Amino acid sequence: MRYALRKVGLFALTLWAAVTLNFLLPRMMPGSPADAAIARLSQNGPVTDETRAAVEAQLGVPDGNILQQYLAYLDQVIHLDFGISYAFYPEPVSGLVATALPYTIVLVGTVTVIAFILGTLLGVLAAWRRGTWLDALPTVGGSFMNTFPYFWTSLLLLFFLGYVAHLFPTFGAYSATAVPGISWDFFVDILYHAALPAVTLLITSLGGWIIGMRNAMINTLGEDYVTFAEANGIGGRTVALRYAARNAILPNLTGFGLALGGVVGGSILVEQVFGYPGIGFLLFNAVIGQDYPLMQALFLMITVSVLVANLLVDILYGVLDPRTRR
Q1: Distance between alpha carbon 90 and the CA centroid of its chain, in Å?
Q2: What is the reported pTM?
């Protein structure tokens, strides 16, 4: 319990630092959030002070001293009110995030969990059967797949399976004729559109889990307690899973926590290539459109998700390896 409370306290302190830094960074940047909008207006002629004040009021540019702005910002964070989007005006930032978040969680989150489980099991198998084809096939195959970057794999699949073979759709999360709702047809249509992005993420991430787990497993198999368990006649499957794999999985578990926290951030390049309307696609458009409120909300959400994932992994570490509690 003391171990968990220490981790929760560290999480709270880190969260406050992240929220404060997210408040300070945009204000340390040169210019103001209204400059981008005013720059577009200035192309048609000089902008008066009255016009500038109207633009700032319309965009909700904060006023008052830095302490007042900080307190108002904390109140907005608590109530999940991040203002109005500049690039998608007059849509509220919270509404845009709420619309895009489920797509990213379903796509990236599901693929991340599948890749971790499948890669970890294949890594255990490769290490336990090292020197055989059961070791060479997943190791060499994983290393080969891991060399392809996300955007390159996305473009290859999009071109050959989308434009050439016409097997999968090439844009969006569902068909233009589909009616959003809770129905089997709409669910199948969403899966159909998510197939290529999901395969891309699975191909490019599976190799890392396999190789990482295999290397950690081989090191663990050389430990004395594994040799002692084998000498006592314990079955090979029990030794592999309950003794070696349980300790070897800890480094992979750390990586899984980071990957799971990064799920909320989505995969910017993959979502952009396929036009998939997730958080990554939204973040890309926010940067291009200099949408400061939307960027600030997305950065904060990604940071919080990583912190929460790390907290859960730290607590799980204490369950799997009691030595970490000390």
Answers
A1: 27
A2: 0.76
The sign one gets for the Cα dihedral 301, 304, 305, 306 is positive
Report residue 276's pLDDT band, with 50, 70 and 90 as the boundaries.
Answer: confident
CA-wise closest residue to 303 among 3, 25, 5, 2: 25
**Helices 292-320, 279-288: inter-axial angle, 10-degree rounding:** 140
DSSP conformation letters of 198-217: HHHHHHHHHHHHHHHHHHHH
Calpha distance 174→159 (Å, rounded): 19
Question: What is the CATH topology of the domain spanning 99-325?
Answer: MetI-like fold (1.10.3720)
Instruction: Give the C-alpha separation, 286 to 300, whole Å.
Output: 14
Look-up of token digits 């004729």: 177
Q: What is the pLDDT of residues 43-78, one digit of tens each?
A: 666 666 776 677 666 666 666 677 887 888 888 888
Spatial contact of 276 and 197, defined as CB atoms under 8 Å apart: yes
**Has residue 321 got a pLDDT over 70?**
no
* Residue 287 identity: V
Both ends of the chain: CA-CA distance in Å?
12
Contacts 24+ apart (CB under 8 A), 136-145: 138/210, 138/214, 139/210, 139/211, 139/214, 141/207, 142/206, 142/207, 142/208, 142/209, 142/210, 142/211, 143/207, 143/211, 144/207, 145/203, 145/204, 145/206, 145/207
Q: Output the six-digit token pair for 64.
A: 């008052």
Start-end of CATH 1.10.3720.10 domains in the chain = 99-325
